[in-house]
Design brief:
heterodimer, A: six-stranded antiparallel β-barrel, six-stranded antiparallel beta barrel, B: 7 helices, about 60% helix
């Protein structure tokens, strides 16, 4: 009697299954691949996590410094501190008016009741429409899809979780090619601004910088910080107010240099080279 | 072919590919070490073990990032299948090529990686493109395109990946060719080829 399950027939069966699996709609494909995906990620992370931490630092450029104000100068020069304090006293009335602005910003950054989970980065992966990091924590630590991920050193926005396994998760980077985010431009130092600009910036094809075209009179200067606004509620609420990057170039638009300018925003720390991230886990989903 | 050696090599190369991805990327291009392993096996292994190895390597590639976005919701999905089929096609291409190449050279390995890689990438992109075709009544569940998936863009990116992979196949090939005695290949099934070099 001929054998039913020869090696050739089993292989053929697997090929047919692979063809069916390749055509499955996303929900079914997810059900099929979720478990093995998580296991593969867990297994690989033993070796890839230390490798990423060590060799990722080779490509890591110095992060762009955020100017937090004249504190360093004041330490060096006590007289300057006194003058600055005097100036502050004179400007108190105006400062109070400005305070409303920052109150609004603090209301936007809702970090009450949010747990911060630190995670090691296992791997980076990039394609033409997507850049991701794999991180070493998952549903066991309460991680779920959609959570906001930040850089622990500069506390700038890195991305959000798009897939969760038991002990690993995938984070889509904010710098994914052609990703669009809405940001508000504010000076990096707490000085008064009469007008503020809100623009939609788009990541370039390599996912390294963001650009936006703005009118020539738009109040955006070099060194300004781009804070996430997200009026369309694409991101979770707790992501609002986080710094996306810093304005590194403001150049006249080549096709219309008199009326428009190109604003270039560069992430403070390149997300692809991070070896550790923070995940913002709200107490209530 | 010794399967334990295959598992160790597949694991190490996959971990290296994941762990070094950010360090050795050029733009968005990274080398695919598992493709090099497939071609190496394609030059030496018997057809049936090669097919199984290709199936396993393809599944590992499908289950590794980058994953695919979906149209709704904030999540992505690993589509199991395109790389399995592509790696099987690549294994078949290797079987056709190996009788006409001098296989003990890393340069050969790099050249075959490039040629076989073209088949692999074409099949992968072809299968992913096929997902978008609505064929009601024939395959009811088809018609699930990947958002922002442009076959031409994808082929272009994969071509640069392939060039990088072929270059990387030269140093990695030197190591793999030195490991031939470990694998226990039986080359008696390959007409006209001498047994693997013993060091």
């Amino acid at each position: 009697m001929p054998r039913l399950f020869t090696q050739r027939r089993v292989l053929l069966l697997f090929i047919v299954l692979a063809m069916i699996s390749a055509m499955l709609p996303p929900g079914a494909a997810r059900a099929v691949s979720d478990w093995p995906r998580a296991r593969v990620s867990d297994l690989v992370s033993f070796v890839s996590t230390p490798l990423h931490a060590v060799f990722g630092s080779i490509r890591r450029s110095d992060p762009l410094g955020i100017d937090r104000g004249p504190e360093a100068q004041l330490r060096q020069n006590y007289d300057a501190l006194l003058r600055y304090n005097a100036w502050l006293a004179e400007e108190l009335r105006r400062t109070r008016a400005e305070l409303g602005l920052y109150r609004m910003a603090s209301r936007q950054m809702r970090l009450e009741g949010i747990r911060l989970e630190q995670a090691d980065v296992t791997a980076w992966a990039g394609s033409r429409n997507r850049q991701t990091l794999t991180i070493g924590i998952g549903s066991i630590k309460g991680i779920r899809a959609g959570l906001v991920v930040t850089d622990p050193s500069s506390f700038t926005l890195v991305g959000r979780v798009t897939h969760v396994g038991s002990t690993s998760a995938t984070v889509e980077l904010i710098t994914s090619p052609r990703n669009r985010v809405e940001v508000r431009f504010l000076p990096s130092t707490p000085v008064a601004v009469n007008r503020e600009a809100i623009l939609s910036i788009e990541a370039d094809a390599k996912g390294q910088t963001f650009t936006a075209v703005a009118k020539a009179d738009t109040p955006v200067e070099m060194g300004y910080l781009a804070h996430l606004v997200d009026t369309k509620s694409v991101w979770p609420q707790e992501a609002r107010g986080f710094v996306v990057g810093k304005v590194t170039a403001v150049t006249p638009l080549s096709s219309d240099p008199l009326l428009y300018r190109t604003v270039t925003v560069t992430p403070v720390a390149p997300p692809a080279t991070l070896s550790r991230v923070l995940v913002l886990v709200p107490a209530t989903p | 072919m010794r399967w334990i050696v295959f598992i160790i090599f597949a694991y190490v190369l996959m971990a290296l590919e994941a762990g070094l991805s950010s360090a050795w990327r050029i733009g968005l291009s990274t080398p695919h070490l598992l493709l090099i392993l497939l071609v190496f096996l394609g030059l030496y292994a018997a057809p049936m073990p090669l097919a199984w190895a290709a199936l396993l390597l393809g599944a590992l590639v499908d289950l590794s990032p980058p994953f695919w976005p979906v149209a709704t919701g904030v999540w992505d999905v690993a589509i199991l299948g395109p790389s399995i089929l592509a790696y099987l096609a690549g294994a078949y291409a290797c079987l056709q090529l190996r009788t006409i190449v001098f296989r003990d050279s890393p340069i050969t390995l790099a050249a075959v990686v490039f040629v076989v890689g073209i088949f692999v990438q074409l099949v992968t992109v072809g299968v992913l493109t096929l997902r978008a075709l609505p064929l009601p009544g024939i395959v009811w569940f088809m018609g699930s395109p990947i958002p922002n998936f442009q076959p031409a863009d994808e082929l272009m990116r994969r071509f640069f990946d392939l060039v990088y992979t072929a270059l990387m196949a030269i140093p990695l090939g030197m190591l793999l060719l030195r490991s031939v005695p470990l694998w226990g290949f039986n080359t008696s099934h390959i007409p006209g080829l001498h047994p693997p070099r013993r060091n």
